[in-house]
């Protein structure tokens, strides 16, 4: 049984309960016992002095690729969970495009069990929308949910058939789970290696037009309206998408959306001289798109920040640009990039950042945590928003190193990550 | 003048071709040809050799090498070719010129005429006609000026200062 | 000692200065003369090993490079390889390392992926010359085009040059746009909108929708090859229609100034982008392009070799 844990004197930022003040947090028996000033602690409590640091509900990432089963050379559920807690995440949702894909209850159970065995961040499996992610017929949502799935997605692929998407949204209503869609019109995007624009024209690379994403965003909003189902739009990247989402929300549709740090930090210029660590799908876009994403995070049009953590082996990325796979890792840099790109320039305050990275994902996907209210799970992140660190490839906990921020100095250092009242990451212990 | 008359002495009966090595050898050859033609009372072939591509040291040609024009009359075989250059030093330029001429044909004889011989040979090459001899140390520079390129005529000897 | 004129590699014309481009053209002039000699050889690159690494089939470019290398007395090896690293089974990285281990002095690479030449150049010490990487650049082609223009008009500055055809997929077009703008020419493109990217106007290039307008405006046309795949991919309905609407034909040129010249990088699809009587007619400079191609490639090899990697021998002094 874990000892009680008292975090003394930190700045507690808990937007779910409207709190931003210096206070103590007492965690006992895996839940939040109390938050207040000068709390007394039981005799056997471990006390950590967190004065000067921020204490917040643990971050939750609804879009992570853990690569297990089948692609363990890039990441395993255990290494992914370790990477997560190093980044301050206490909960991560694992996308099902593994090998084989997670489209049945046994596979869902496998992921859940592996996550529990790792004993670090909570791992929530996401099941496929369609069997084999082939876009033909629905997978067994009910069975997968019973085994622990928290959502369904064919991420990695778009759902090209509007009929299938409609069925998925309607059927998912039975279980109250979101249908997370990777918005991409496949024929329009086919063969594209980066955003269709002046940089692609200069580099001689086929581009993916913004329209490819926006067409599916529009479709999904309309289908959400038709069915009343909850569609969650993955990795939004264009200003057109933002406009469509804003309109959908004005109409009261059950549309939620996420954006990844690279889409509010970088643009297609980052590709530079064919840098494969700037290659992902959807691609980095133009400055106006980047600004629209930032504004959307600020005004809540985009509900949450999700990394789309996509580990790839060094050899895979060390290739001609056309042949390199899409994606970058993101769990260990997300908090820092959010601080650097959104909080420091004054677009949002720390409380809103915690809302987008913890409270909102928990609330919208019906996950535990995201709040430090009494009785909530004791999932907490303690970080120093003002300290800086350098991204050292040797010290990355993910199995892969494909990040555009290698060698960069970033703000925000995670000091402790606590899951179920137990310290699972201590920045000073792990050197 | 004297160089020209010495060339005339060496000339013999075979067709004569006077070839200047780029760059200033060309100007010198240009001045020599009319004098020789007048003395021999016959036409003399003329040509120019850019030897950059025949150097034995591509790295020292510099990383911005300038390749000069080469133009030789077609009738090299059996002719007497006189190579004209401004300064003879290590002999490598002349060696390159000999290689290049060989790629064009087989002269009966090749002679070398230079304005200044400054010693310091690295190859067994000697000039048949020499304007003047100057003793130099390795750090010194001998530069010939011709009015067509430099605005005035002259020979400058720049000693390496201590 | 001044800095190397071109650096270690020639990847493209995008980042070259006007001075650099001009120097290459100037250096090519004396090399034209070498090809006219009875013994078409100079010892300038004697002892250098050059590998022609062609991942895409190309007879004409490869032969042109091979002649250039042999006329400079270099030792050449041709390596023809199928497709991408994935298809081949050996990655480009490993190919690079093998070449370095064999102390190859220079590599001429043609590859189907944009960025492949830079990828290789960044990983080996040998000089790398881009003979065409995907849709990105084909610098020696553009350089020989520029030389051909300069031969005919005496200058490139102020010339009006229109690139006609599938600009979107063309590395020749991109290199030409860079080279021409660097030397002060006015550049235009003309072709079906599906094959002419909108973004090029941001590079200072004007667009003509109709070939007749382009012919009226231009001093020179550079006609690009239209590949069959483009029709199959749906960019144009048919090759026949392409010729009817955009083909460079004798009738269309009848209204051109008689000084207008027509270039083509080859190989030609006679009757598609260009009619035979144009290709073989008085406006065409296609054959001079080929001659200039060897001279340009000799110049590029020569200029890069001056800055060859460590394992080359050192030099001695002048005279």
Instruction: Tell me the β content of chain A.
Output: 15-25%
Using CB atoms under 8 Å apart, which protein chain pair has the greatest interface?
B-C, 33 and 35 residues
Give the CATH architecture of chain B: 3-Layer(aba) Sandwich
Alpha-beta classification of chain A: alpha/beta
Number of strands of chain B: 7
Distance between the amino and carboxyl termini of chain B: 37 Å
Give the fraction of residues assigned to helices of chain A.
Answer: 25-40%
Most strands sheet of chain B: 5 strands, parallel
Order of helices and strands of chain B: HEHEEHEEEHE
- Which parts of chain A are unreliable, with pLDDT below 50 for 5 consecutive residues or more? none
Tally of strands of chain A:
18
Q: How many domain regions of chain B?
A: 1
Shape of chain B: globular
**CATH top-level class of chain B:** Alpha Beta
Counting H and I runs of at least 4 residues, what is the number of helices of chain A?
13
Decide which structural class fits the backbone of chain B.
alpha/beta
Rounded Rg of chain B: 16 Å
- Shape of chain A, please? globular
Q: Work out the helicity level of chain B.
A: 25-40%
Quick tags:
heterotrimer, B: 162 residues, alpha/beta, Rossmann fold, two-stranded antiparallel ribbon, 7 strands, 27% strand, C: 319 residues, five-stranded parallel β-sheet, four-stranded parallel β-sheet, 13 helices, globular, disordered C terminus
């Amino acid at each position: 049984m874990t000892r009680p844990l008292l975090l003394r004197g930190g700045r507690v930022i808990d937007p779910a309960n409207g709190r931003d003040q210096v206070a103590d947090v007492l965690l006992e028996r895996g839940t939040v016992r109390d938050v207040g000033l000068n709390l007394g602690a039981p005799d056997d409590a471990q006390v950590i002095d967190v004065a000067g640091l921020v204490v917040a509900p643990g971050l939750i990432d609804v879009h992570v690729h853990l690569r297990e089963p089948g692609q363990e050379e890039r990441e395993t559920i255990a290494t992914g969970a370790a990477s997560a807690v190093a980044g301050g995440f206490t909960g991560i949702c694992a996308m099902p495009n593994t090998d084989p894909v997670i489209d049945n209850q046994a596979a869902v159970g496998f992921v859940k069990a592996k996550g529990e065995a790792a004993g670090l961040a909570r791992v929530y499996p996401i099941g496929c929308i369609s069997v084999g992610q082939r876009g033909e017929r629905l997978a067994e949502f009910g069975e997968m949910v019973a085994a622990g799935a928290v959502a369904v997605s064919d991420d990695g692929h778009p759902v090209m058939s509007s009929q299938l998407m409609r069925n998925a949204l309607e059927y998912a209503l039975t279980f109250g789970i979101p249908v997370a869609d990777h918005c991409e019109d496949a024929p329009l995007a086919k063969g594209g290696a980066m955003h269709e624009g002046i940089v692609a024209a200069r580099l001689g690379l086929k581009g993916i037009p913004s329209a490819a994403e926006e067409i599916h965003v529009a479709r999904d909003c309309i289908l959400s309206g038709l069915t009343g189902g909850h569609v969650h739009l993955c990795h939004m990247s264009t200003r057109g998408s933002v406009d469509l989402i804003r309109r959908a929300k004005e109409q009261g549709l059950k549309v939620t959306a996420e954006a990844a740090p690279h889409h509010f930090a970088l643009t297609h210029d980052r590709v530079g001289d064919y840098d494969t660590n700037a290659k992902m799908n959807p691609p980095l876009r133009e400055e106006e798109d980047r600004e629209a994403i930032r504004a959307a995070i600020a005004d809540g049009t985009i509900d949450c920040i999700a990394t789309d953590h996509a580990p790839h082996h060094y050899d895979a990325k060390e290739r001609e640009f056309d042949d390199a796979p899409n994606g970058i890792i993101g769990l260990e840099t997300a908090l820092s990039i959010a601080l650097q790109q959104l909080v420091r320039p004054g677009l949002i305050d720390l409380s809103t950042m915690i809302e987008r990275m913890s409270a909102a994902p928990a609330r919208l996907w019906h996950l535990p945590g995201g709040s430090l209210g009494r009785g909530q799970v004791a999932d907490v992140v303690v970080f120093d928003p003002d300290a800086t660190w350098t991204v050292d490839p040797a010290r990355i906990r993910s199995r892969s190193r494909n990040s555009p921020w290698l060698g960069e100095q970033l703000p925000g250092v995670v000091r402790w990550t606590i899951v179920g009242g137990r310290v699972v990451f201590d920045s000073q212990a792990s050197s | 003048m004297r160089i020209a008359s010495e060339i005339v002495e060496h000339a013999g009966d075979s067709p004569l071709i006077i070839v200047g090595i780029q760059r200033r050898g060309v100007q010198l050859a240009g001045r020599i040809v009319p004098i020789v033609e007048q003395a021999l009372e016959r036409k003399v072939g003329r040509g120019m050799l850019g030897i950059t591509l025949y150097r034995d040291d591509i790295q020292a040609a510099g990383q911005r090498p300038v390749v000069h024009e080469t133009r030789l009359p077609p009738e090299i075989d059996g002719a007497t070719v006189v190579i004209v250059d401004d300064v003879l030093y290590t002999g490598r330029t002349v060696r390159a010129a000999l290689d290049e001429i060989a790629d064009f044909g087989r002269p009966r004889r090749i002679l070398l005429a230079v304005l200044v011989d400054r010693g310091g040979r690295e190859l067994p090459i000697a000039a048949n006609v020499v304007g003047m001899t100057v003793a130099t140390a390795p750090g010194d520079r001998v530069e010939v000026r011709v009015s067509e390129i430099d605005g005035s005529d002259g020979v400058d000897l720049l000693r390496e200062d201590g | 000692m001044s800095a190397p004129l071109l650096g270690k590699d020639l990847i493209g014309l995008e980042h070259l200065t006007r001075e650099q481009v001009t120097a290459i053209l100037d250096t090519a002039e004396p090399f034209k003369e070498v090809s006219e000699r009875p013994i078409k050889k100079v010892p300038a690159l004697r002892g250098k090993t050059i590998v022609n690494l062609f991942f895409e089939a190309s007879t004409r470019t490869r032969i042109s490079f091979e002649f250039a290398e042999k006329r400079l007395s270099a030792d050449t090896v041709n390596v023809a390889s199928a497709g991408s690293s994935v298809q081949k089974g050996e990655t480009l990285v490993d190919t690079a390392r093998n070449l370095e281990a064999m102390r190859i002095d220079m590599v001429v690479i043609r590859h189907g992926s944009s960025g492949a030449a830079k990828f290789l150049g960044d990983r080996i010490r040998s000089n790398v010359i881009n003979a065409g990487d995907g849709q990105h650049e084909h610098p020696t082609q553009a350089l020989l085009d520029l030389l051909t223009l300069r031969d005919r008009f005496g200058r490139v500055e102020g010339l009006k040059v229109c690139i006609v055809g599938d600009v979107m997929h063309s590395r020749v077009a991109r290199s030409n746009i860079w080279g021409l703008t660097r030397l002060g020419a006015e550049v235009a493109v003309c072709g079906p909108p599906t094959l002419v990217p909108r973004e090029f106007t941001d590079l200072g290039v004007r667009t003509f929708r109709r070939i007749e307008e382009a012919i009226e405006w231009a001093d020179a046309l550079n006609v690009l090859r239209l590949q069959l795949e483009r029709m199959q991919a749906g960019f144009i309905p048919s090759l026949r229609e392409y010729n009817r609407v955009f083909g460079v034909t004798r009738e269309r040129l009848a209204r051109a100034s008689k000084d207008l010249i027509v270039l083509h990088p080859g190989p030609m699809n006679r009757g598609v982008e260009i009619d035979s009587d144009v290709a073989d007619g008085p406006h065409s400079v296609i054959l001079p392009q080929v001659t200039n191609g060897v001279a340009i490639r000799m110049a590029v090899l020569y200029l890069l070799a001056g800055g060859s990697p460590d394992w080359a021998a050192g030099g001695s002094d002048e005279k």
